[in-house]
Amino acid sequence: MSRRNDSQGLNKDSGVKRNASKLFTAATRRDYIDLVDFYGNEPSPTEFHQLAEQPRCATNPPQGFETLPPGTQQLLKWIPRDIGEMRAIERLEGAIRNGNTGHEELFSLYKDLPEPRAPYLRRKNLGKLLSQLSVVERKSEASMLRFLSIIEDMRNASVSIFEGEWNSAIAFAGQFLYNIRDDQVESALHLWKEMESTAGIRGSEVTFNILFDISIKAGRFALADMVREEMEARGLRMDRYSHVSQIYYHGLRGDGDSVRTAYKELVEAGEIVDTTVMNAVIGALLKSGEATAAEQVYERMKKLHAQSTHQKLPPQDWREARFLGRTLSRMTRIARSDRAHHQIIQGSAPIAPDLRTYRTLINYHCLESGEIERVASLLNEMPYYNISLHGIMFLLIFRGFTVHGGIRYTLWTKGALDSVWSALLEAIKSEQSNVHMGRWMIIWALRAFQKVSTKARVSEIWEEAQTLSKADAEDRAYISQNLNEAIN
Which pLDDT tens digit goes with each residue over 433-465? Predict the structure, then answer.
């Protein structure tokens, strides 16, 4: 269904509401509930609440805050001193208006501005620059440094920072690594404190959702509880993101019953159930040691999708997925008190498995259960939902051979590994867009062959990989070092 048709289907026309049952399968709230069966060093609470209750203006604010009324800074723009500076500003503002300029190029153009850079841009363009740099598929150290260096320039020049920009800064500070460290948690808390006590901007539910997500992913569960308590004390309502994070939180704690309860609370709060929500449930149940329940949820997703009239598939592009998530959150707020309108939105939300669904299940069977036949079955089901083969699947399977291979009576055999390697070579030669011979693909393939085959075969795999690899000199040196350790 196109976005144009979506918007027509989601309007408040009473005739559309009366015909909602004809447009979509009338899955009830009970149907969605039935998708899931129901069976560190932390600050003390006192210290955390003292942090949350800091005065909204610091005693000694940064230079500039005390001399200009709040909000005045956003109206000021420094004047370039010569034609060179003017052209540097024009180049950057042109790239910002373009909207499709790569982040590295954008940041390079920003660095070309004269010191202190930020005040030379109109505040509107500075906001657009930060907005574009905040939209990334996965946060990384490079993306974090780009964003926070501009925030630092703004702080140093006393340029106002808006709430959304503070929230993005907190998220980058705390989430730029996959495995979140304690120092990242502290950086995020420091930025939150500065946002509230120095800049005088009260955190919203978005702020606390970010802090909660950082806390649980760092394993700081007591801190996560304090964040939730503070959110409740401020009367901030849990939204879609809050509920999904709560599901994930209970999974990390290994509490399957609480996962089910959190999911039920999401449904009863009127939030829309879609593929993203169900992926969170599957992942949480797997982390709770309830693989059978996770597989049942997966089967029910497929069944509910098959019963749906429109059979809309989840977007595969991460930008489209991001847009869908935000749209569902916004539409839910509008329709929460209107059951007919809510039913239309729920009926239009995709519930079919996506790449993340299969990645989660295949990761479990490769690294935990060792059921290679189930892995093959899941891979065979992916095309039914228009999901292309992805390099992460090969990487997970290679890791599975390092865990389960080289053992008597295992099905993770040399012959099976040779078949996987051949399939990978075929996918790369046919130029499938999401399959590449990168550093970690090669390393895990070498480790897999080391586990189930001979040293000579490991060397052969390395020779084959080099002919198809786009690895740079640094990556090749790193791989060679791993290879020498493997065969010597």
Answer: 899 999 899 999 999 999 999 999 999 999 999
HSE-CB of 365 using CA atoms within 13 angstroms: 22
What single-letter DSSP state applies at residue 247?
Answer: H
Distance of CA 383 to the CA centre of its chain: 24
CA–CA gap between residue 462 and residue 483 (Å, rounded)? 8
- DSSP of 220-241, one letter per residue? -HHHHHHHHHHHHHTTPPP-HH
Q: Find the largest Cα–Cα distance for the chain.
A: 76
DSSP secondary structure string for all residues of 282-322: HHHHHHTT-HHHHHHHHHHHHHHHHH-SS-PPPPSSHHHHH
Other CB atoms within 10 A of residue 2 CB: 7
- Work out the mean pLDDT of the chain and round it to a whole number: 85
Q: Tell me, what amino acid is at 159?
A: V
Q: What is the dihedral of CA 302, 352, 384, 438, to 10 degrees?
A: -130
pTM over 0.85: no
Q: Three-class SS of residue 93?
A: helix
With cut-offs at 50, 70 and 90, classify the pLDDT of residue 470: confident
224-254 as b/e: b if 16+ CB within 10 A: bbbbbebbeeeebebbbbbbbbbbbbbbbbe
Q: Do 292 and 338 contact (CB within 8 A), yes or no?
A: no
**Among the listed residues 281, 353, 286, the one whose alpha carbon sits nearest the alpha carbon of residue 316:** 353
Tokens representing 264 are 């039920």
* CA angle 197–219–43, rounded 5-degree value: 40
In whole angstroms, what is the distance from residue 379 CA to residue 487 CA?
Answer: 32
Distances (CA, A) of 117 to 93, 108, 122, 263, 281: 13, 12, 11, 46, 45
Helix pair angle (182-193, 163-175), 10° resolution? 170
CA–CA distance, 485 with 488 (Å, rounded to integer): 6
DSSP-derived secondary structure for 156-210: HTT----HHHHHHHHHHHHHSSSS--HHHHHHHHHHHHIIIIIS-----HHHHHH
Q: What is the CA radius of gyration of the chain?
A: 26
Give the residue from 408, 412, 395 showing the smallest Cα distance to 446. Answer: 395
Lowest mean pLDDT across 56-65, 106-115, 364-373: 56-65
Return the structure tokens found at 72.
């005045």
First to last CA, the chain: 57
Cα separation, 212 vs 209, in Å, equals 5
pLDDT (tens digit, 9 = 90+) per residue, 275-296?
999 999 999 999 999 999 999 9
What's the sign of the alpha-carbon dihedral 23, 29, 30, 36?
Answer: positive
Residue 5, exposed/middle/buried by CB under 10 A (0-12, 13-18, 19+)?
Answer: exposed
Omega within 30 of 0 (cis) for the link into 116: yes
